[in-house]
Amino acid sequence: MWLNEFKVAIVTKDTKKINSLMASMPQFEELAEMEEAFYLFQQADKLLNELKDETAKTMKKLRDNISFIESTYTKNTSKLDIMQ
Predict the structure, then answer these.
(1) Which of 12, 14, 36, 11 is nearest to 26 (CA)?
(2) What does the alpha-carbon distance between residue 53 and residue 63 come to, in Å, rounded to a whole number?
(3) What is the DSSP letter of 30?
(4) What's the predicted TM-score (pTM) here?
(5) Torsion-angle region of residue 83: left (phi > 0), alpha (psi -120 to 50) or beta?
(6) How many CB atoms lie under 10 A from the CB of residue 19?
(7) CB under 8 Å to 34, separation ≥6 — which residues?
(8) 1-26 confidence digits (pLDDT tens)
(9) How many angstroms from the chain centroid is the CA of residue 52?
């Protein structure tokens, strides 16, 4: 049951569920279950690192876009022009 939930969490990229399941990992009694859990942990680690890298790239793009917008923005000087 736990292994199936963990597989679904990895496939759906549900990081909250992955963390929750890792925190409540049961004791495995069979070697096959242990090996499967180990493989799934490797996949979860790979997924989390990919998502982290993707987030970092997105953040960099956002910072670059904000910098570009700020550089093209002309600031209006507030002058009170009485003479017309």
Answers:
(1) 36
(2) 15
(3) S
(4) 0.72
(5) beta
(6) 13
(7) 28
(8) 999 999 999 999 999 999 999 999 99
(9) 5
